[in-house]
Amino acid sequence: MTEKKIIAVVGATGAQGGGLVRAILSDASGGFTARAITRNVNSDKARELAQQGAEVVAADVDSLESLKKAFQGAYGAFCVTFFWEHFSPQKEFAQAKAMATAAKHDGLEHVIWSTFEDTRKWVPLSDNRMPTLMGKYKVPHFDAKGDANQVFTELAVPTTFLLTSFYWENLINFGMGPKKGPDGKLAITYPMGDKKLPGIAAEDIGKCAYGIFKKGREFIGQTVGVAGEHLTGAQMAAALTKALNQEVRYNDVPPEVFRSFGFPGADDIGNMFQFKRDFQEVFCGPRHPSVARALNPSLQTFAGWLAQNKSRIPLE
Ligand SMILES: NC(=O)c1ccc[n+]([C@@H]2O[C@H](COP(=O)([O-])OP(=O)(O)OC[C@H]3O[C@@H](n4cnc5c(N)ncnc54)[C@H](OP(=O)(O)O)[C@@H]3O)[C@@H](O)[C@H]2O)c1
């Protein structure tokens, strides 16, 4: 019997990494085992992963030494950072660098780095159509991830660069779901005009990552984008209307209005939506759902995701 290849999964108790761990564990004959990385091996989520068959190990992406230990003996690793825990692009870059360095040190054969575009390639800081944030970013939670791609490349880590999409779970737990207006009617509010927003069920990102690992070396050095569907705000509202059996409208607002909403990160997310709106081809082009479906045949559509999750969407 050939020995199974270990995939060390950062963020294993979270959305992307959790999806990957579950995908590995649910394919017993797939040739891989999951090493779930967490800061707290005793948390309920970590224990649950252990019960499901994952090897659970402690590491913190702020500690290079802990990452080196956690990646040791693994074939591959899934690397992701957690912008919304600290709101610091500099920290995100440092964490990505630590993961790339540990992967190099331990001689990993395949790393998937969950990244985004560095939007400054298309919107230089001198471009005033959107404000520069934190001194040197346009979309802070994108730009440092994209900037960190070079670290994986410079260290010659065998890497697949995974471009992810807007989680539809944001409608449940990121305040992006339908809200009642002064007229009592429900509406989703995104500054996307009539442009399409690539979206995905968060669980499908991990399943796609598993599909990439299963392909061996095929995608190393390449950028792979994943989305379940590309939908306009109006199309999302129509799908919500059908699923919830009550009218949900799409409220298109200018990005500057969205940026002024005042919740933490509203300016970052306003710029993000504006980038997706104004550079539609750049953003949608590399995230064709057919690519994601080839990697993950059970890829969900928005309607399919809604059928499973509509009762979890708070209607405020
Ligand atoms: N929301 C969206 O639409 C969206 C879409 C695409 C990409 N993203 C990106 O996704 C990233 C977050 O990924 P996610 O949603 O999978 O995360 P998540 O669900 O928030 O999970 C984060 C997990 O990572 C672990 N973690 C946090 N800080 C850590 C640290 N210092 N060291 C080690 N582990 C740590 C935590 O586990 P323990 O507590 O067990 O350690 C936690 O369970 C963000 O950078 C965001 O920009 C978001």
Question: Overview of this structure, please?
Answer:
By secondary structure, this protein is α/β, with parallel strands linked by helices. Helix content is 41%, strand content 18%. The protein is built from 14 helices and 13 strands. The chain has helices spanning 15-25, 44-51, 64-71, 83-86, 89-105, 140-154, 170-173, 202-214, 233-244, 255-259, 266-278, 280-284, 289-295, 302-309; strands at residues 5-9, 32-38, 55-58, 76-79, 110-115, 159-163, 166-167, 179-180, 186-190, 196-200, 223-225, 229-232, 248-252. It has a 7-stranded parallel beta sheet, sandwiched between helices. It has a 3-stranded mixed beta sheet with strand order 7-10-12. Strands 8-9-13 form a 3-stranded mixed beta sheet, with helices on one face. β1 (5-9), α1 (15-25) and β2 (32-38) form a beta-alpha-beta unit. α1 (15-25) crosses α8 (202-214), α5 runs parallel beside α6 and α9 (233-244) packs parallel to α14. The protein is globular. The N and C termini lie far apart (55 Å). The model has no long low-confidence stretch (mean pLDDT 97). It binds NADP nicotinamide-adenine-dinucleotide phosphate. Residues 11, 13-17, 38-40, 43, 46, 60-62, 80-85, 141, 164, 166-167, 170, 174 line the site of NADP nicotinamide-adenine-dinucleotide phosphate.
